[in-house]
Structure formats: C-alpha cells, structure tokens
Amino acid sequence: MACPRCGTPQPSGRCCVDCVVRPPPFDALFAPCAYDAPADQLVRGLKFQGTLAHGRVLGLLLAAHRRAQATPLPTLVVPMPLHRERFAERGFNQAEVIARAAAGALGLPVRSGLLQRLRGGARQSGLGAAARRANLQGAFNAGPLAGCGPIALVDDVFTTGSTARAAAQALKNAGAPRVEVWAATRALAMEDSPIC
C-alpha cells in the first residue's frame, strides 16, 4: 500500500503525513521501477550515453504500469522540459523520449512545448531537498490550458519531488484540472514498485 498522492509506502494506503501537511500540486504519482539496478542503468545509459532504446524501454514499462491502474488515463502527455542550455549539451530530452514511448503505447498525444523551463539553475543531482526547492523557484512556465483535460507530466527519475512540484504547479496555474506525474523510476524503493 502506498500514499495515493506521492507513492510513499503507507500501511493504511492513505495519504502520508507529508502530503497532508504540504500537499503537492500534482494529484498522483505513478512510477513502475525503483531507481536501482537495472532500471538506474537504463536511465543513465539514456541520459549520459544517448542510448535512446533505453528510453523506449522505460516508456513501455511506464505505459504498462499506468494501464494497470484503476483510474482513467489523462488526455495529454507532457514531458518534463530541459532548459535550452542542457538540451544543447545533451542533444535530446530524455523525458521526451520516455514520454513518446509511453504515450504511443497508450494512444495518447504528446505536447512537448506546452511546459517550458525558463532557467537552468544548478544540476539537481547532488542537492538536498531544500536546495532543490530553492533551485526551482520560478523555473517553469506553462499555458494557457483552459479547457484542457488531465495531464500526465513525464520524467525519468522522481527523487525528492521538487522538480515535479514546480512543474505541476506551473501546469495548474495555467489551468490544468489534474496533473499526474509519471516517472520511469523513483529514488525511494516502494513495496508496490518492483525493481524492474
């Protein structure tokens, strides 16, 4: 059993204390794999070696995991954007590779330019939770989304949730009625999220 909002293991299956005290702007988190072997190797191969086939595998795992859930699918898939400098450095957006594979398997449209990353900031890896939050203040912009349906926000790794919170808040501010975070992997190993 897990918190329905953030996926943290909860014996009761109810919202965890953190989500009650500081509810995230996203409505649900779906992550099929723990960020551990072999899924972490797929993520690193995608991000740092450009092995796009790894992203397609992660996207298909994500689609199968989301399809197995009881809640209706969203109507639109949005990849977590990279800042233009990071995109130029890497040459592709790993979240978009995963998002396109997942959306294709589920028959959903993808909108890459809907959410923009306005500034780069320091790399999130290696930062603590408070530093991650500060690093993302005002980092995203979206919209307008009046009249759109529920959105799936796709990323490669869910760590502290700071990036997901900031991006989901931008989508909600722009009018998204519901935002689900779909992460291929989650840093916290969960009872219902097997190591793939």
In short:
This protein is of the alpha/beta class and 196 residues long. It is 36% helix and 16% strand.
Distance between the termini: 18 Å
The average pLDDT value, as a whole number, equals 87
Number of domains: 1
Largest beta-sheet details: 5 strands, parallel
Which helices and strands appear, and what pairs or packs with what?
Blueprint: H1 17-21, E1 28-30, E2 33-34, H2 39-49, H3 52-67, E3 76-79, H4 84-90, H5 94-106, E4 115-117, H6 129-135, E5 140-142, E6 151-158, H7 162-173, E7 179-186
Parallel strand pairs: 1-7, 2-7, 3-6, 6-7
Antiparallel strand pairs: 4-5
Notes on the protein architecture:
With 196 residues, the protein is α/β, with parallel strands linked by helices. The protein has a single domain (27-186), classed as Rossmann fold (3-Layer(aba) Sandwich), CATH 3.40.50. The chain is 36% helix and 16% strand. The protein contains 7 helices and 7 strands; from the N terminus they run H-E-E-H-H-E-H-H-E-H-E-E-H-E. The chain has helices at residues 17-21, 39-49, 52-67, 84-90, 94-106, 129-135, 162-173; strands spanning 28-30, 33-34, 76-79, 115-117, 140-142, 151-158, 179-186. Strands 1, 2, 3, 6 and 7 form a 5-stranded parallel sheet that branches. The protein has a two-stranded antiparallel sheet with strand order 4-5. Strand 6, helix 7 (162-173) and strand 7 form a beta-alpha-beta unit.
Structural descriptors:
196 residues; 16% strand; 5-stranded parallel sheet; 7 helices; Rossmann fold
